[in-house]
Amino acid sequence: MDRQGNTYTFLYASVMVIVVAAILAFLAQSLKPMQDKNAAVAKKMDILKSVQIESTAADAEVKFEKYIGSNAYVLNINGEKQSGMEAFTVDLAKEVKKSDAERAYPIYECKLDNGSVKYIIPVRGKGLWGPIWGYVSLNDDKNTVFGAIFGHKGETPGLGAEITTPMFQDPFKGKQLFDQGGSFASIEVVKQGQSQGDLHKVDGISGGTITSVGVGTMLEDCLVGYEKFLKN
Hints:
- Keywords: Cell inner membrane, Cell membrane, Flavoprotein, FMN, Ion transport, Membrane, NAD, Phosphoprotein, Sodium, Sodium transport, Translocase, Transmembrane, Transmembrane helix, Transport, Ubiquinone.
- It comes from Carboxylicivirga marina.
- The strands form 2 sheets. The chain has a 5-stranded antiparallel beta sheet. Strands 6-7 form a two-stranded parallel sheet.
- The chain has one domain (about 45-230).
- The longest helix has about 45 residues, at about 5-50.
- The chain is of the alpha+beta class.
- Helix 1 crosses helix 2 (about 60-65).
- The protein has 6 helices and 7 strands.
């Protein structure tokens, strides 16, 4: 075959594409178990961080087993535990697309060294450029926030991405989900300086309005499904 001809060039390019694709597919398949494990460890680290337990990739699994272990379950909209489902494997990205009545609501119970119990609720929503998510932990009154952490996929550095910082997360501590009458009020993210003295508001990020509003919407949309469980 003429190596200078178009046919040879086409066949050579096709073979190379197939070979490279096969190699990449093999590597992706081979690395998937490791990637899945790393993702699971990172998730456990985030869950623990929401109850102010610091962990590393090396000890996250041990600490998760110690403080939470099997004390995780899935609820329905009525606050009833659902059998045959594991809280840790619930794909919240899929669940938030369902109606409230159809969703699965995972929750984690954490018993700290002082004997107190915290309830950890995962949340997921939309920011400016992509998905945002987090974990909100509640005291054993099932109302007062003990801690909160948030993450994002592609928010703007210095603006919306600030939801991952203590500056934004720490003010959630001590806020409450229910008003004095017992009605669900959630936690609203408002403009800078407007949350002072309000148990249901935190200051948003200056210049990150859309992401801040996204966090507030995410909290209301995800937490309201736990209302009956938290009240009972």
